[in-house]
Fold these 2 entries.
Entry 1:
Amino acid sequence: MMDRRSFLKKLLSALALSGGALGGFLRGVPAWGQAKEEPAGKLWGFGVSVDKCIGCARCVVACKTENNVPKEPFFYRTWVERYMIPRTGEAVVTNIHTGLAPEEEIPSRPIFRSFFVPKLCNQCAHPPCVQVCPVGATFSTDDGVVLVNDKTCIGCRYCIQACPYGARYLHPATDTADKCTFCYHRLDRELLPACVEVCPTQARVIGDLNSPASPMTRFKRMNKIFVLKPNLNTEPKVLYANIDGEVR
Amino acid sequence: MKKPLQNMPESALRLVTVFAVFIVGTIVVVKFVIPPRFKDTKIQWADTVKTEVAKPVRYAGAVACTECHDEIVAEKKRGYHRDLSCETCHGPAMAHTEDPDNIKPSAPRDRKFCPVCHTFNPSRPRGFPMINPVAHNPMQACFTCHNPHDPKPPTVPRECSACHGEIARTLSVSHHVQLKCTTCHDVPSRHRVSPRVVKPTKPSSRDFCGKCHGQESPYKGSPKIDLATHGEKYVCWQCHYPHLPEAE
């Protein structure tokens, strides 16, 4: 029969032992208790210098060729808008087409200033398209690119509606949502995205936002950076430099 | 004491059995029969990344071209088209890199392609070389005058007025019309090649204008002032516009 004193002694020593054992066990499991120290992976970002764009639409043509985007207008992974801002009134925005020479467009009102704005998927850090997808077919990868799983996409077009930048379209051949992937297959082979590759004036830049020495880090350091529709808190990873306040 | 099941009426017991079979069946089907690939979005997303990465590449990238075409690359490096990717004009060339002998990339030789970038368009940034393709040497292919790998205007403008027309017109009605631009401006030869980077000098001292306009000046017919008392500390062109100085 155990008396009270020896019972308490044994209980305490057993507790101490098991505590030590638990601590040793915890040390073997690194992810638990303390944060894992791991170098930050890549985070792809994209830069657009609006003042360099000459509106030649080579990027649009290259993107359509590289990514099997239908040739008809209004199917775009990337596109170029022409802004014409009159002296008074609303800005006139037209989508320039992929045809060889830019179309003759004679504005009816006197134009105050005019420029081209390349657009593409902003690969938001908080993507509305991912939030609304009912089947989890669209998602953000670890390196910050929003992709669409065309095997589970049911073509409901919720994401196309939800995207505040109009960056998605329904691919007529597969009936699934399609969008810019920063040419994910090219990035993986250490090639530039097709639009960046062919841009004749280096208006487009791509790079790793986490790296201290990447074209994007330099782009961010050298320019005043803007994003499209910052009030929506989508935190785009497509950064614009030298952009006009009229651009929406 | 009787078991509770035997207490139940038979109809209720059957109902409970049917429900139990349904619930257990559903759990079994969801847990064990449906493969995890169908349920787990993490696996689906990893698959999507794999299929995305495996997509074919059509644009080989400018680095691939340097392996064989080093002469053209060296020529292009010297000219204004140095930052242009080969595939901007020659089109996607991945197939050409895999089978260089049988598949040749296109080379635009007509008047349609160069104007894609070089037609005058008011939305294009200032300073970008633009022409009116209707009036600019009609019917001639661009490459008869311009080498696309090292494009230059066939004749470099000799007179300053080719670019500085406004100043030339102002000067033509002024007393200084007889003076050459180089009388007052030192023009480095590189100013013709990079006009915005290398700029001509302006007279920086009062003595420079004093060579003609000082009281001791040997020139006749030029208005004379006393440099010691006139204008105090200011350089002359801060008050007088040398391209159109005051009449009297």
Note: Residues 62-144 of chain B form one domain.
Entry 2:
Amino acid sequence: MSAMLLNKEKWSDFVGMLAGKNLWAPRESDEGLRFVPVAEGEVPTLDYNNTRVPPKEAVFPQTETLFKFKVGGKDLEEPRPDQDAVLLGVRPCDARAMHIIDELFSWDEDDPYYLKRREKTVLVGLACNEPGLNCFCTSVGGGPVSTEGLDLLMVDLGEKYLLEEVTEKGSALIDEVKELLEEADDNSSKQKDKLADEAAGKIKRSIETEGIPAGLPGLWEDELWQRVSASCIGCGTCTFLCPTCHCFDIQDETEGFEARRCRMWDSCMFREYTLHTSGHNPRPTRSERTRNRINHKYSYYVDKFEVIACVGCGRCINLCPVNIDILDILGQVKEEI
Amino acid sequence: MDLDKLRKTAAEVVAREDVRYLLGWKKGTFGYRIAPGFVEDAESAAELIFSPLCTANLATYLTLTEKPPLPRGQEPDDRKVAVMVKGCDSRAVTQLLIEKGIERESVVIIGCPCPGVVDHELLAEKYPETEETAELKWSDKGFLLLQNGEETEIARDELLAEKCRLCRYPNPVVSDIMVGEPVETWEPDDDQGVAEVEGKNAEVRWEYWQEQFSNCLRCYSCRNVCPLCYCEDCILDRLNPTWIYRSVNFSENTAFNLARAFHLAGRCIECGECERVCPANIPLGKLNRKLAREVREKYGFEPGVDPEAEPFQASYKPDDPEEFIL
Amino acid sequence: MINKENPYIPYNATVEDTWYETGGERAIKTFKVVFDDENIRKSWEHFPGQCAMIGVLGVGESMISISCSPTEGEFLRFSVMRMGKVTQALHQLEPGDKMTVRGPYGNKFPLDQWQGKHILTIGGGIGQAPMRPVVEYVKSNYDNYGGLTMIYGARTSGDLCFKEEFEEMSKDDQLSCHLTIDIEEEQWDHNVGFVPQILMDLNPSPENTIAVTCGPPIMIRFVLENLKKLGFEDDQIYTTLENRMKCGIGKCGRCNAGNMYVCKDGPVFSYAALKEVPEAFA
């Protein structure tokens, strides 16, 4: 696959040429930075660290209609997500997260909603030159220029962006904007490698994950779970903002005669998540729920799909209201193993 | 604030036989973060701090304690819980006493007069956080930042949290032990930070809140962090009957946020925690303060001030003039 | 069969017959259900142990044990306790009404591997629902099995499910049927006592026997203990787990017990397997 260069002066032309494509990019607003459809004439900036809500919402929306029906009727109308989309400026960790949850959504039975969106979406990545404060992607198999899950990787070389094709979807996109691009030379790839090394060097936080997946089951009864969850308030911040968290609820909702069955993000940190109708709860306290969250990411998912379901984006650390820090938990896990 | 005195007091309290643990503030894992600390022995009291970074209202943990069924034969631990409180936090404790959410004998209240804490987001924006834990102290000018071996003086107005600018109770209204001298109170804006929105017409206000509520992720961090949201079975979680659908959209989000705001009218003590923790930056403080002002002006009630007061939402006066009720 | 195009789309089915098994606030009602689409009716395959998501459009779905054996005919049976929103709505259904069904989900009792063995089912209350298909399956294949013993108990005789089948069962000399209730009642001429105790009184030999149990958690606990006392090995004992479920296909996350999804890797587990699952008895 080849690499091309885009002069930053042509950035608005680049965006303009893709305008008809249901283009998404991060935009700053009251709520903070978030991926939203690019408005007509809007030229998104790629000068940012990362969004609060991960771009998983473009392929796994927080609320999704599974089918619609009339109250009292029995005919089901299935909305099939069939719109193409291009996500501009996805960070490698977030693309890698989608790559990881692709496994789950195509395991055993295919999930048609997720997989269709995934197929129709082109992920244009943006390599990290300036990792965030709590980034630790390099500890969990990622990196500032990781291309897993991406279709195209952009690297900010200063005056130009380097565009590296990763998949055929990426190549097809390059073809559409070819007239704006120039062939990359050896120098740009050297520049990229240098930037990648520098970026990796700027990552301050880390965890040696070796031994964690195998060691976690042995810590089932350890009092560390009580300790690390003592201050947890049981909200959904860590899970909703996690790019690999994929749990959902399914509910029927009616409005007048219109009804729909929909699914929405759910969180294993909520009490209701596992609550039986009888009132019995197999995970009665926040300590069991915290244990499940860590085990799911660092042990169960590894058992099933041979990959840790954490990409080190740091969101759960940055946004936890009470400073529950997954690296701190993992550090304590390592100590106890 | 004399930290040695604070730690010594905490160590004494936690050493008491009738005290189970003490809730205080500890340094967090990085940067400006503060972590709620559950101190169980005198030795760990040395980790406690009190600084302008200590925004968290620890009173929330008084009702957040889980009571899973005990193994047969095990007695419940009903020793007291000690809690360190700023002025606003002490109002939460008082309001819990008013509502009989907790019993006075079940808590040891350690009052910390508070000259005002910082807006963490503003702080991190102006003085970028690093992985090293930083210290922030109160100084004559406002705040003194000690970060990576450097000291920076910061003016109070530059970083003071909005809820603190509007605070009328910087000194704890209830306490068993006070640590430090009472601070001088200051004059808050009398509009409670809501005049800007109030001044606009209904349509514009609706549009404003529509946009804000549309951003809500329904993570419930606002509810869960709130010291006064302590219903064991929240009506907003109930599925049978379903009062609010779980779908995340403007309509359901609005229902959630407004229902919560109404349930807090005359109960919210304006600690600002909901707004601080909201990952979607919804200005929940504005909403709650607006209702607080209505309750104060129309009913003459201020929550969390007098532990002997009757709870506003649960009291009835036969001679209520009801002038403003349609 | 699971809708390959879209596993979330349920099939329409019609309630053909329905009756109450038990009364009271938490009544149990049985539904005999037939798929509306003939193709589905023909291609649907289920096996003892499996479950299906049944529901009422506009209210929701619940994961319920299929309480009939495929050997009984081209219909499905579900016995549903009235508990929450969905089961309340299901209880409103009468013959001719529609429900939705998707599935079947979960693994199966390995009845093929158990050929030649004596099958012992031990059920309590609504826990007999997944036992019934095992009993029915063995009954229609007696030649392939070494015998069939059924222990079934409930608090009172009114709390027993599938009562209309007991008389016929008592005439079946290949089936050793032991019914019990917790407290003495007039006109009750079967056992009185808790299920685990009846098991001990019966004192079945573990030799060439498979024990299958389902019931309230406390009953399961003592049944497991007693089976061990009787000399049953861990791999001779099977039970089923239940957890809150939404998708049925191992995606929505909530039904896990340790690294197992109850909807995929369960609900049937051997005691040997279950011992390795930390949350199994949570």
Note: Chain A has eleven helices and eleven strands.
